Amino acid sequence: MGGKRIIIGTVLLAFVCISSCAAKDHDLNSETVSMTKDVFAMDTFMNMKAYGANAGKALDKAEERILQLEKELSVNDEQSDIWAIDHSFGDEVNVCDDTAVIINKAIEIGDRSGGALDITLFPVLKEWGFTTGNYKVPDDDTIGELLSYVDYRKINLNGNIVSLPEKAELDLGALAKGYTGDEIMKIMSEEGVSSAIVSLGGNVQALGSKPDGSDWKIAVRDPFSPEQDMCMIEVSDKAVITSGNYERCFTADDGKVYWHILDPSDGYPADNGLVSVTVIGDSGIDCDALSTALFVAGYDKAVDFLRSENGYELILVTDDKKLYYSEGLSECFTDLSDMGAEVIDLD
Ligand code: ADP
Ligand code: MG
Predict the structure, then answer these.
(1) How large is the C-alpha radius of gyration of the chain?
(2) Which of 90, 172, 204, 211 could form a disulfide with 166 if both were Cys (CB 3.0 to 4.6 A apart)?
(3) Is 279 helix (H, G, I), strand (E, B) or coil?
């Protein structure tokens, strides 16, 4: 499926320009002018749409901000904060505010999820080849050794100073796009845009409602046939963020499929009953970190989370092909699947 993703990417690239392009449009349903911009960054096709007189300037600024964040957060760019941290061998590194804020959030959600989110899994992710596409199933001894370097609780973050144990490394792939979405929305508001929608891979973030006052319709992909949508929700001013096992995966010689979200408890792809988790809430960074964490935690813990925390709605798909959504979505949820959607039972 990794291959398919690349093919789709190549076809898309033939239609859009290499790094970015902008287009102006008159929305069919309203007189308001909208503009769109496509950017390829953070290994993801991103598209943004903004409405109103200030849309063009806001989109340009948003693109600049995306490229700045990519430079700061990339694991591959030798100038990035993350590169510096991952090659610090225990020394202290002075990072920019964005990096410090994201690491701080990752530690918080690590704690809130009982360690299901652990940004220090990076050495294990590299061994599986998820960082390069040269996939392989590592042997148990190697995973065991690399896991001994994994523990987000050992990250030292003091203001903008970060240090890790000597052999530890981290990556912010689980929540960087959510933070980026929040930063784009901030720019849109600052520039006077009150209606905008962005899609950063599986992450959709909406500012306000559509210019005609109606909610945005946001589709979520079917993890069993990712080229199709399984449901649609209608929301305003929300982040709708999905982690799925189909995003980056490979079939190994043993015939099994392995995917890019790992369980910190054993270093293997998380296989706790869920194949897709969508978190809907106000903050992109929270929803992104939580979608990865709840994917690892599994169905029962995701339902526990729903019981104990306010301000979030969930859409869950289990590996036995069942689609569940939280009650708060009842009014705005449309089932497009053949799974038969059910409301999550909190009792
Ligand atoms: P995507 O990037 O496909 O939208 P996620 O937001 O769920 O999906 O993030 C997955 C990324 O997070 C992986 O590519 C990897 O870099 C990192 N990762 C994988 N497992 C974990 C984990 N348990 N905790 C923290 N980060 C993880
Ligand atoms: Mg995530």
Answers:
(1) 20
(2) 90
(3) strand
Query: pLDDT tens across 219-251, in order?
Result: 999 999 999 999 999 999 999 999 999 888 899
> What CA–CA distance (Å, rounded) separates 214 from 235?
9
CA end-to-end span of the chain, whole Å? 38
| pLDDT in the model for residue 14 | 33
Structure-block tokens of residue 122: 């990076």
pLDDT beyond 80 at 213:
yes
Cβ–ligand 1 contact at 99 (below 6 Å): no
Q: Counting atoms of ligand 1 from 1, which one is nearest the CA of 130?
A: 14
pLDDT digits (tens, 9 = 90+) for 95-131: 999 999 999 999 999 999 999 999 999 999 999 999 8
Alpha carbon nearest to ligand 1 atom 5, residue? 174
The predicted model gives 273-293 an average pLDDT of 98
What is 224-271 written as a DSSP string?
TEEEEEEEEEEESS-EEEEEETTSSEEE-TTS-EEES-B-TTTSSBP-
Residue 38, C-beta contacts closer than 8 angstroms, at least 6 positions apart: 16, 17, 20, 21, 45, 46, 47, 48
Sign, Cα dihedral of 326, 328, 330, 335: negative
What's the CA gap between 201 and 185, in Å, rounded?
A: 16
d(CA 187, CA 34): 16
What is the whole-number distance in angstroms between the Cα of residue 197 and the centre of ligand 2?
18
Q: From the CA of 30, how far away is ligand 2's center (Å)? A: 34
Mean pLDDT of the chain: 92
Q: Model's pTM, two decimal places? A: 0.92
Give nearest CA residue, ligand 1 atom 3.
247
Phi-psi region of 319 (alpha: psi -120 to 50; beta: other; left: phi over 0): alpha
Q: In a mutational test of the pocket of ligand 1, which residue from 70, 260, 301 has the highest number of ligand atoms less than 8 Å from its CB? A: 260
What totals of helices (H) and strands (E) does the chain contain, helices first?
Answer: 9, 18
